[in-house]
Amino acid sequence: MRRVTDIAPINPAVLTLKQAAEYCGVSYWTMRDYVLTGVVSCVRPPVVRVNAGKRRGINGTLPPERVLVSPDDPRVVNQRLRLMLIRRVDLDAFIEQWTERRQPYGAEKAGATDAD
Q: How far is residue 36's CA from residue 2's CA, in Å, rounded to a whole number?
């Protein structure tokens, strides 16, 4: 019998905004702004369910059934869920791109020559 501690942790390929913010060490709102301004790209899953009928009133009737449709269905073409997922590899590239590279202290002086 396998114990829970024997199972390897799952490293998901995509993260939610909250998980991505924790991964990068910034707030949820900062990560959201990065996505909305295009600094970090996101994955937006397509809509695959639509309401089968008209919306019912709030008089206690049941909500309409939702049915699965093809992504090519004209009712859902170009529609995306509000959910924003961020690929881990994109976050790693983002972190690498914005990492400051500094010369070791005194390296500039060692290579400098007087132009007098």
A: 43
